[in-house]
Amino acid sequence: MASAAVLERLDAPLASVLRDACGTSPVAPFSDARLARDAITALIDEAELTPKPALVDRRGSGAHRDLDLAIMRRSAHALEPTFAALARTARRRGEPSALLRAELAQIGRAGEQEMMQATGGSNAHRGAIWIIGLLVAGVALETASSSSMRAHRPGGPNRVDTSRICTLAAQIACFPDRFAASSDSHGERARRRYQVGGARREAQDGFPHALDVGLPALHAARARGLDENAARIDALLAIMSTLDDTCLLHRAGLAGLHAGQRGARRVLDAGGSSTAAGRVALDALERELLSLNASPGGAADLLAATLFLDMLAHRDASRS
Question: To which protein family does this belong (predicted)?
Answer without folding.
Answer: Belongs to the CitG/MdcB family.
